[in-house]
Design goal:
Bound molecules: S-adenosylmethionine
Helix content: 25-40%
Number of helices: 8
Structural class: alpha/beta
Radius of gyration: 17 Å
Oligomer: single chain
Order of helices and strands: EEHHEHEHEHEHEHEHE
CATH topology: Rossmann fold
Strand content: 15-25%
Number of strands: 9
């Protein structure tokens, strides 16, 4: 995915500028099981992208706390966290269709009433659909690292996106980011530290959060001997 030779793809933003995307759509095939889940379950669990703010109560049928996960991949960690915390709501944002199909399968298999999916670019979703001061947390597990220097502009965790993240959190809400890319963690630490309304919960990097399951991407990374680094920032 990231790190290879990619075209400089981007899209026109609504403000008339040109925005570079933080992802390249993976060509990975959607399996038959994933397609079946997409066909049967999207109507119930996927929230279509719209240009107007979401009403969480209408979507979940309750006023429970809401966490947004950006780039859930195959959604295994999302499903596990949601299953452990039925009293909290989770919105997963992902552009990878096979991953959306897989998380829909998990939702049905684990009978999760507290997960919804938005299949769209997270930047648009936050800007248009998520009301300011409405979220309890962001989970950003192994965002695409964009290793090559000329691709670093595609990284998600940088300003102005970090300002948007902060604006969507309630006071006391948190951002948990994890990556195995040391250089990305250093830059994310600087970018998040520069947001006035965010406070680093630790002196520098955070210890492993015990509630956090190992993600699919992390499994591969660990098998290659790469240890993850975590960041934990609180909105004040
Ligand atoms: C390296 S993968 C990690 C997936 C998963 N979190 C894990 O740890 O296994 C990063 C994921 O973020 C998604 N992604 C990147 N930029 C995104 C964006 N702007 N909006 C939604 N998803 C995005 C990609 O499609 C990809 O699936």
């Amino acid at each position: 995915m990231a790190g290879g030779d990619v075209l400089e793809t981007g899209e026109a933003s609504n403000s008339g500028g040109f925005r570079i995307k933080s992802y390249v759509l993976r060509s990975g095939r959607t399996s038959k099981a994933q397609q079946r889940s997409l066909d049967r379950l999207s109507g119930a669990y996927c929230v279509p992208f719209t240009e107007s703010p979401i009403d969480f109560r209408a979507v979940f049928g309750n006023d429970n706390h809401v966490t947004v996960e950006i780039g859930f991949g195959m959604g295994s960690a999302t499903a596990e966290i949601a299953s452990e915390n039925p009293q909290k709501n989770y919105i997963g944002i992902e552009v990878f269709r096979a991953g959306v199909g897989r998380l829909l399968w998990e939702i049905e298999n684990r009978r999760l009433a507290n997960v919804r999916i938005i299949e769209h670019d997270a930047i648009d979703v936050l800007e248009k659909m998520i009301p300011d001061g409405s979220l309890d947390a962001f989970h950003i597990f192994f965002p695409d690292p964009w290793l090559k220097k000329r691709h670093r502009k595609r990284r998600l965790v940088k300003r102005p996106f970090t300002d948007i993240l902060a604006s969507k959190l309630k006071n006391g809400g948190y951002i948990c980011m994890v990556s195995d890319c040391a250089d990305y963690c250093d830059s994310a630490l600087a970018e998040l530290s520069a947001v006035k309304t965010l406070r680093n919960a630790c002196l520098k990097f955070a210890p492993r959060q015990r509630w956090r399951p190992i993600t699919k991407f992390e499994e591969k990374s660990l098998s290659r001997g790469r240890a993850p680094t975590e960041l934990l920032f609180i909105k004040e």
